[in-house]
Amino acid sequence: MATLRIPAATYRFQFHRRFRFEHAVALVAYLEALGVTDLYASPIFQARRGSLHGYDVTDPTRLNAELGGEGHFESLAKALKGRGMGLLVDIVPNHMAASVENRWWMDVLESGQGSPFAGFFDIDWHSPKKALSGKVLLPILGGPYGRMIEEQELSLHLEKGGFLVHCHSAKLPVSIHSYPRILSLRLSSLEETYGPDHPSFRELWDLITTIEHLAKTTAVDAESARERYTSEEEIKERLLRLYTERHEIREHIEETLRTVNGRKGDPASFDPLDRILSEQHYWLSFWRLANEEINYRRFFAVSELVSLRVEDPRVFDASHDLVLRLVREGKVTGLRVDHIDGLYDPHGYLVRLMQRLTGSEDANPSPGFYVLVEKILGRDEVLPPAWPIHGTTGYDFLNALNGVFVSAGGVKTMDEIYARFIGVAPNFRETVYRSKKMVMDSLFAGEMHSLGQHLGRLAEQDRYARDLPRKELHAALIEVTACFPVYRTYAHGHELPARDVRYIAKALKEAQQRSTEASTPVFDFLRRVLLLEIPPGLAGTEREEWLRFLMRWQQFTGPIMAKGFEDTSLYIYTRLVSMNEVGGNPASAGVPVNAFHIRCGTAADRWPHTMNATTTHDTKRSEDVRARINVLSEIPEEWETRLRQWTRQNAGKKRIVNGVATPDPGEEILLYQTLLGAWPIEEKELPGLQARIGSYMVKALREAKVHTRWIRPNIAYESAVKEFAASLLKDPSQETSAFLADFLPFQRKVAHYGALNSLAQVLLKIAAP
User: What's the gap between Cα 199 and its chain centre?
Assistant: First the structure.
C-alpha cells in the first residue's frame, strides 16, 4: 500500500535521449544540497523514438529504453531513496501516440473493431461518412490520396510482420482479410507454370483457404480475439517461411507485389493497390483533411496523439499497471496527472486512481497518496472539492503571484498607449470569443460537426424540439461553446454541480444575445440538454444519450479554450505580454496585495499541499522574463517614449507584404517586450538570442493566426518579420547601432528592477502555502 509523502520543494527534470536516468543520478546530491526534497520527472514511459518530451507514450507498460530502461531507473530510485528524497512522476492518462511504435494502435489498424484494443481508443466507428464506417481516418499523407498512390508514395511489401503498406517512414499493417486477394492475384499463373499438384501451389492454396476460413470468424469477445490473434500470427509465420524456403512462392509473391505497386504514368496499374487499401480498417487521407473529418478524439488538434478511454476499467488497468507497481515498490512517491480536463469523467478517474494507489474501497477515498492535476483554473474558478487530490500544478498560483508585481495604475495607462499604437481600442474578451469560433471552424470542424449531429438526434427524440432546424442547432452549439467562460464543466453521472450550472447559464445568455442564426426555441432546447433536464418519458438508452452528449461536449470545450485562448488570443493581444499566461487574464489590472493574501489564506485552508509554480515546461515565458516585462507597468510613460522612438528609428526596416507594413504594430510591441525580457545578462550569449528571436517570432505569428498559420504559412510575411527582427540585432554595438544606443540603457534599467522582482517572487513562492 502506498504511503503519503508531501514534497517541500521539487525540481523538474525533462528526460530525453540526451538526458537519461544516469544523468539524473549524478545530480541527486546537488539537488539535495539545494534543498530539493523531491525530483519531479517528465513522463518516463516508453515514448516515440527520439521524443524530447515523453508525452507521446507508445507503451505505458514499459519504462522508456532511451532514458535507460529498468536498470538505470532502479539506480535513480535507489539514489533518491538513499538521501530521503521522493520522486514525483508525470503520467499521461488522456492519450498515446498514434504511431507505428504503438502496438495497441497498430493492432486496431490491422483488425479494426475485432482488435482487443479497439475499445482502448476513443474512436467513432459509426461515422456519418459512409467511407469511414467501421474505419479509422488516418490523415498522414503529404498530399491527396490519388496523387500519392500514383506517385508510388504508397506501396505494398512482405516483411516479418506480414504484408505492410509503406507510407513515407511508416509501415502500416494489412488486414488478414486482404491476404487472399493479394495471394490470389497471379495464382492462375503459378498454377499454369507448375501445375495444380505442385507442392508450392498446393501449400499456397491451402494457406489461402485457411485465411478465408479465419476471415469468416466475426466474434469479438476477449477469448475469440486472443485465438484470432494467435491464428493470424501463425499464418504470417507460415507465409514468411514459404516465401523464404520455396523459390517458386517467393517469385510469385515478388511478381505480385510488382504488379500491385503499379507503374508511374499508368493510372490503371494502381487499381489493385487501391482496392487493397480500400479494404483496410483505416482510411488513408491527406493530412489537411484531419480537422474536418477526424473520427477519433485527439489531444487538442494533434492527429498524432489519439485519446484513450480510461473511463473503461480495462483501459485504466492496462495503462496504469506499471506506474502502480512502481508506487507499490516505493520508487514513485507522487503523481502529476497530465491534461485532466481531457478525460471523460475526471472525478471518476481520480477516485479509481486513489483507490488503486491506497487500496481503499471507499467511494470517496481520502487523498492518501500525493497526486496533483494539471488543471487550468479560470478567473474565480476553484478546484472541484470532491476530487481526491492535493492540488494543481500551480498555474493559479503563478498568475496570482505575477499579478502582484503589476501596477494597476500603470496598466490603465498602458491600455491607452496600446490603443493609440495599434489604432483601435482592444477588447480581449472579444478577441477570445472570435478566436474560439475561428479554431472551431478550422481545427475542430469535425468534432463540432459530430457533436452537432448528436444534438440533432436528441432533438428528434423530443416532441418540442423535433422540428428545430439542424443548422440552427449547430449554430447555437458553436455560440455557447465560444462564450463558455471556463475550460470545462464536470458532470458526474446525472449530477451537475451548481457552479457548472452557473457557467452554462452564463454562456447560454451571452450566446443568445450574440446569435443571429439560432432562434429562442433552439437555445431553450440546448439549455435543457446542457443542464440535463431530461424529459421524464424518455427510455433508459435515450436518457443515456443526453448524458453522453454533455460528457462529450465537456471533453471538447477545454481544447477549444486552450487553442482559442492560450494558443491564439495570447499572441494577438500584446499590451503587456508578461500577463499573457496560461490561466491568466491579460486584460486585468493585476492582483491587489490584499487579494493575494486572501488567495493564500484560502489555499492554506483548502489545498495546503498544492504546488506553487512560477515557471513550467508549458508557460509562455519564464518567471524571470515576466518579472522584467512587469516593470513596464511601473514606468508606462517612459515605455511609451521608448516605443515611439524605436518605431521611428526602425520604420525604414519594415517591408510591405500584401499591403501591410510588416511587422504590424501589435507584433512590433511583442518583439520589443520580448527583447527587453529575454536580453542576455552576458554579452557572449547574444548570438544565441539573435538565432532564437526569429524562430520565436514565426511561432508567435503562426499561433496568432492573423497573417500566417501553421496549416497554411505565409512565408513572405514570416520572412519579412524575421528580417526585421534580425536587422535590430545585426550590429550588436551600442556605439554604431542607433536602436541599441537607445534600447540598451532602458533594457538595463528594466533588468535591474526585474531582478528585484525575480528575487521577491522566489521569496513569496517559498513562503506562500
Answer: 54
Torsion of CA 203, 207, 209, 214, to 10 degrees: 160
611, part of any domain: no
Dump pLDDT digits (tens) for 466-497.
999 999 999 999 999 999 999 999 998 888 99
Rg of the chain, C-alpha, whole Å: 29
Number of domains in the chain: 4
Phi, psi angles (nearest 5°) of residue 372? -115, 155
Residue 582, pLDDT score: 94
Give me the mean pLDDT over the 133-138 stretch.
Answer: 96
Let me know whether 178 and 37 are in one domain: no
Q: Are residues 33 and 59 in the same domain?
A: yes
In a domain, 109, yes or no: yes
For 427, the 3-state DSSP assignment is coil
Residue 112, CA distances (Å) to 158, 210, 458 in order: 20, 20, 28
Are 121 and 59 part of one and the same domain?
no
Say yes or no to pLDDT of 225 above 80.
Answer: no
Mean per-residue pLDDT of the chain: 95
Q: Are residues 310 and 272 in the same domain?
A: no
Strands 370-373 and 334-337 come out as: parallel
Pair type for strands 86-91 and 95-97: unpaired
CA dihedral over 346, 351, 352, 356, signed as positive or negative:
positive
In terms of domains, do 17 and 126 share one? no
- Would you say residue 330 lies in a domain? yes
- pLDDT tens per residue across span 460-470: 999 999 999 99
Which own/partner contact pairs does 529-536 have at CB distance under 8 Å and 24+ positions apart? Answer: 529/455, 529/458, 530/480, 530/504, 531/496, 531/501, 531/504, 531/505, 532/491, 532/494, 532/496, 534/494, 535/462
Pairing between β-strand 86-91 and β-strand 334-337 as defined by DSSP bridges? parallel
The residue that leads in pLDDT, 340 or 211, is 340
Stretch (H or E) spanning 587 = none
Same domain, yes or no, for 251 and 364?
no
β-strand pairing of 302-307 with 298-299: antiparallel
Domain interval for residue 174: 103-295
Burial 575-609 (b: 16+ CB within 10 A, else e): bbbbbbbbbbbbbebbbeeeebeebbeebeeebeb
The sheet that has 162-167: what strands, in order across it?
154-159, 162-167, 170-173
In this structure, the answer to whether residues 343 and 466 fall within a common structural domain is no
pLDDT tens per residue across span 616-657:
999 999 999 999 999 999 999 999 999 999 999 999 999 999
Which of 546, 572, 598 is where one domain is finished?
572
Q: Considering the entire predicted model, what is its pTM?
A: 0.95
Q: By C-alpha distance, which of 24, 284, 267 is closest to 154?
A: 284
Would you say residue 744 lies in a domain? yes
Distance from C-alpha of 701 to C-alpha of 568, rounded to nearest angstrom: 9
Report how far Cα 270 is from the mean position of its chain's Cα atoms: 37
Same domain, 83 and 120: no
To which residue does cell 491607452 refer? Answer: 416
Instruction: Please say if the pLDDT value at position 89 is more than 70.
Output: yes
Q: 751 exposed, middle or buried (CB, 10 Å; 0-12, 13-18, 19+)?
A: buried
